[in-house]
Write a structure and sequence with these properties.
By secondary structure, this protein is of the alpha+beta class. The chain has a single domain, classed as PEBP-like (Phosphatidylethanolamine-binding Protein). It has 4 helices and 9 strands. The strands form 2 sheets. A 6-stranded mixed β-sheet has the order 2-9-8-4-5-7. It has a 3-stranded antiparallel β-sheet with strand order 1-3-6, with no helix packed on it. A hairpin with an 8-residue loop joins strand 4 and strand 5. The longest helix has 11 residues. It is globular.
Length: about 210
Protein backbone atom coordinates (compact mmCIF):
# COMPACT_ATOMS: atom_id res chain seq x y z
CA UNK A 1 0.00 0.00 0.00
CA UNK A 2 2.67 2.53 1.02
CA UNK A 3 4.99 1.50 -1.80
CA UNK A 4 3.02 3.86 -4.06
CA UNK A 5 3.89 6.92 -1.99
CA UNK A 6 6.44 9.24 -3.61
CA UNK A 7 9.98 8.88 -2.31
CA UNK A 8 10.10 12.64 -1.81
CA UNK A 9 7.46 12.29 0.90
CA UNK A 10 9.47 9.56 2.62
CA UNK A 11 12.55 11.76 2.54
CA UNK A 12 10.59 14.68 4.00
CA UNK A 13 9.34 12.51 6.87
CA UNK A 14 12.54 10.57 7.57
CA UNK A 15 13.22 12.38 10.86
CA UNK A 16 9.66 11.83 12.05
CA UNK A 17 9.58 8.51 13.90
CA UNK A 18 7.60 7.20 16.83
CA UNK A 19 10.78 5.97 18.56
CA UNK A 20 11.81 2.86 20.46
CA UNK A 21 10.92 4.60 23.70
CA UNK A 22 7.26 4.34 22.66
CA UNK A 23 7.07 0.58 22.07
CA UNK A 24 5.23 -1.48 24.68
CA UNK A 25 8.46 -3.09 25.91
CA UNK A 26 9.80 0.30 27.00
CA UNK A 27 6.50 1.88 28.06
CA UNK A 28 5.63 -0.84 30.56
CA UNK A 29 8.14 -1.90 33.21
CA UNK A 30 7.66 -5.56 34.12
CA UNK A 31 9.82 -8.15 35.82
CA UNK A 32 12.14 -5.57 37.30
CA UNK A 33 12.77 -3.98 33.91
CA UNK A 34 14.75 -6.89 32.47
CA UNK A 35 14.22 -8.85 29.27
CA UNK A 36 13.81 -12.17 31.06
CA UNK A 37 12.11 -13.77 28.05
CA UNK A 38 14.34 -14.58 25.08
CA UNK A 39 12.67 -13.95 21.73
CA UNK A 40 14.11 -15.38 18.50
CA UNK A 41 13.18 -16.08 14.92
CA UNK A 42 14.44 -18.70 12.51
CA UNK A 43 13.97 -16.13 9.73
CA UNK A 44 16.21 -13.31 11.00
CA UNK A 45 18.63 -12.43 13.80
CA UNK A 46 18.20 -9.62 16.31
CA UNK A 47 18.61 -6.23 14.62
CA UNK A 48 19.00 -7.97 11.24
CA UNK A 49 16.83 -7.52 8.13
CA UNK A 50 13.47 -9.26 7.89
CA UNK A 51 13.28 -11.25 4.62
CA UNK A 52 11.02 -9.68 2.00
CA UNK A 53 8.80 -12.79 2.09
CA UNK A 54 7.24 -11.48 5.30
CA UNK A 55 6.75 -7.91 4.07
CA UNK A 56 4.46 -6.04 1.70
CA UNK A 57 7.12 -6.50 -0.99
CA UNK A 58 6.71 -10.29 -0.79
CA UNK A 59 3.95 -12.71 0.16
CA UNK A 60 3.30 -10.74 3.34
CA UNK A 61 2.91 -13.78 5.60
CA UNK A 62 3.87 -13.68 9.26
CA UNK A 63 7.40 -14.82 10.19
CA UNK A 64 8.23 -17.59 12.66
CA UNK A 65 8.79 -16.39 16.24
CA UNK A 66 9.76 -18.39 19.32
CA UNK A 67 10.28 -17.52 22.98
CA UNK A 68 11.87 -19.13 26.02
CA UNK A 69 12.28 -18.15 29.66
CA UNK A 70 8.59 -17.74 30.51
CA UNK A 71 8.64 -17.63 34.35
CA UNK A 72 6.63 -19.74 36.80
CA UNK A 73 3.36 -18.13 37.79
CA UNK A 74 2.54 -17.10 34.23
CA UNK A 75 -1.14 -17.44 33.33
CA UNK A 76 -0.99 -16.18 29.76
CA UNK A 77 1.50 -15.04 27.12
CA UNK A 78 0.97 -12.14 24.74
CA UNK A 79 2.75 -10.99 21.57
CA UNK A 80 2.67 -7.51 20.09
CA UNK A 81 4.63 -6.39 17.02
CA UNK A 82 5.22 -2.65 16.53
CA UNK A 83 7.06 -0.45 14.04
CA UNK A 84 9.18 1.91 16.13
CA UNK A 85 10.01 4.06 13.10
CA UNK A 86 6.55 4.76 11.75
CA UNK A 87 6.16 8.51 11.00
CA UNK A 88 3.34 8.67 13.55
CA UNK A 89 3.03 9.78 17.20
CA UNK A 90 2.86 6.16 18.35
CA UNK A 91 4.37 2.97 16.93
CA UNK A 92 2.36 1.29 14.20
CA UNK A 93 0.91 -2.01 15.43
CA UNK A 94 1.52 -4.89 13.01
CA UNK A 95 0.14 -7.75 15.10
CA UNK A 96 -1.37 -8.57 18.47
CA UNK A 97 -1.76 -12.17 19.64
CA UNK A 98 -3.31 -12.87 23.04
CA UNK A 99 -4.23 -15.92 25.13
CA UNK A 100 -1.08 -17.82 24.20
CA UNK A 101 -0.23 -20.81 26.48
CA UNK A 102 1.63 -19.89 29.71
CA UNK A 103 4.92 -21.53 28.75
CA UNK A 104 7.79 -21.36 26.29
CA UNK A 105 6.34 -21.49 22.82
CA UNK A 106 6.43 -20.42 19.20
CA UNK A 107 4.39 -19.19 16.27
CA UNK A 108 5.33 -21.00 13.05
CA UNK A 109 5.68 -19.23 9.74
CA UNK A 110 2.32 -18.10 8.32
CA UNK A 111 0.61 -18.63 11.69
CA UNK A 112 -1.34 -15.37 11.61
CA UNK A 113 -4.14 -14.40 9.32
CA UNK A 114 -3.01 -12.15 6.46
CA UNK A 115 -4.12 -11.06 3.02
CA UNK A 116 -2.62 -14.29 1.66
CA UNK A 117 -3.47 -16.72 4.45
CA UNK A 118 -6.23 -17.74 6.84
CA UNK A 119 -3.66 -18.39 9.57
CA UNK A 120 -3.90 -21.05 12.25
CA UNK A 121 -6.70 -19.63 14.36
CA UNK A 122 -4.80 -17.74 17.04
CA UNK A 123 -6.68 -15.11 19.07
CA UNK A 124 -5.51 -11.91 17.38
CA UNK A 125 -6.13 -8.30 18.28
CA UNK A 126 -6.42 -5.27 16.01
CA UNK A 127 -3.45 -3.88 14.15
CA UNK A 128 -3.23 -0.17 13.36
CA UNK A 129 -5.38 -0.70 10.27
CA UNK A 130 -8.11 -2.07 12.59
CA UNK A 131 -7.75 -5.58 11.18
CA UNK A 132 -7.35 -8.72 13.31
CA UNK A 133 -4.45 -9.97 11.23
CA UNK A 134 -0.73 -9.66 10.45
CA UNK A 135 0.11 -6.30 8.89
CA UNK A 136 3.33 -6.87 6.89
CA UNK A 137 6.15 -4.29 7.08
CA UNK A 138 5.43 -1.60 4.49
CA UNK A 139 7.62 1.46 5.17
CA UNK A 140 7.26 4.54 2.97
CA UNK A 141 9.80 4.65 0.11
CA UNK A 142 12.71 6.89 1.00
CA UNK A 143 12.00 6.84 4.74
CA UNK A 144 14.98 4.65 5.55
CA UNK A 145 15.36 1.63 7.80
CA UNK A 146 12.44 0.71 10.04
CA UNK A 147 12.78 -1.32 13.24
CA UNK A 148 10.03 -3.85 13.99
CA UNK A 149 9.78 -4.93 17.63
CA UNK A 150 8.50 -8.46 18.26
CA UNK A 151 7.61 -8.22 21.95
CA UNK A 152 6.55 -11.13 24.15
CA UNK A 153 5.03 -10.63 27.60
CA UNK A 154 4.15 -13.00 30.41
CA UNK A 155 1.06 -12.11 32.46
CA UNK A 156 0.29 -13.39 35.95
CA UNK A 157 -3.43 -13.24 35.20
CA UNK A 158 -5.13 -14.02 31.90
CA UNK A 159 -7.25 -10.97 31.00
CA UNK A 160 -10.63 -11.46 29.41
CA UNK A 161 -9.84 -9.67 26.17
CA UNK A 162 -13.05 -10.74 24.49
CA UNK A 163 -13.13 -9.96 20.77
CA UNK A 164 -10.23 -8.15 19.13
CA UNK A 165 -8.27 -6.04 21.64
CA UNK A 166 -6.31 -3.03 20.46
CA UNK A 167 -3.05 -1.52 21.66
CA UNK A 168 -4.53 0.41 24.59
CA UNK A 169 -6.26 -2.68 25.99
CA UNK A 170 -2.98 -4.57 25.71
CA UNK A 171 -0.99 -1.84 27.47
CA UNK A 172 -3.56 -1.70 30.28
CA UNK A 173 -3.33 -5.46 30.77
CA UNK A 174 0.48 -5.33 30.80
CA UNK A 175 0.54 -2.56 33.39
CA UNK A 176 -1.78 -4.56 35.64
CA UNK A 177 -0.55 -8.12 35.12
CA UNK A 178 2.81 -8.16 33.27
CA UNK A 179 5.61 -10.05 35.05
CA UNK A 180 8.25 -10.60 32.34
CA UNK A 181 9.06 -9.46 28.84
CA UNK A 182 11.40 -9.94 25.92
CA UNK A 183 11.99 -8.22 22.61
CA UNK A 184 13.42 -9.10 19.19
CA UNK A 185 14.12 -6.35 16.65
CA UNK A 186 13.90 -7.00 12.93
CA UNK A 187 14.66 -4.31 10.37
CA UNK A 188 13.38 -3.54 6.90
CA UNK A 189 14.48 -1.04 4.27
CA UNK A 190 12.30 -0.74 1.20
CA UNK A 191 14.51 -1.95 -1.68
CA UNK A 192 13.71 1.05 -3.86
CA UNK A 193 14.71 3.51 -1.13
CA UNK A 194 17.63 5.75 -2.02
CA UNK A 195 18.88 6.72 1.45
CA UNK A 196 22.15 4.90 2.30
CA UNK A 197 21.57 2.47 5.13
CA UNK A 198 24.30 4.02 7.28
CA UNK A 199 22.50 7.38 7.05
CA UNK A 200 18.95 6.08 7.27
CA UNK A 201 19.29 3.72 10.22
CA UNK A 202 18.36 5.27 13.59
CA UNK A 203 20.94 5.05 16.33
CA UNK A 204 21.20 1.64 17.98
CA UNK A 205 19.44 1.32 21.31
CA UNK A 206 19.96 -1.29 24.03
CA UNK A 207 16.52 -2.82 24.35
CA UNK A 208 17.47 -4.92 27.37
CA UNK A 209 16.66 -1.96 29.58
CA UNK A 210 13.60 0.30 29.25
CA UNK A 211 14.37 3.82 28.09
CA UNK A 212 14.00 6.70 30.48
Amino acid sequence: MLEKLPQALGHALRNQRAGLDQIAFNLVSVGGGTAAIQVRSLAFADHAPIPALYTADGAGISPPVEWTGVPPGTASVLLIVEDADAPTPHPLVHAIVVDLPPQDGALPEDALKSSHSEGLGYHTGRNSYLQASWLPPDPPPGHGVHRYAFQVFALEQAPDFGGTPGREAVLEALRSHGIASGCLIGTYLRPDGTIPVEEAAPAAVNIDQPLA
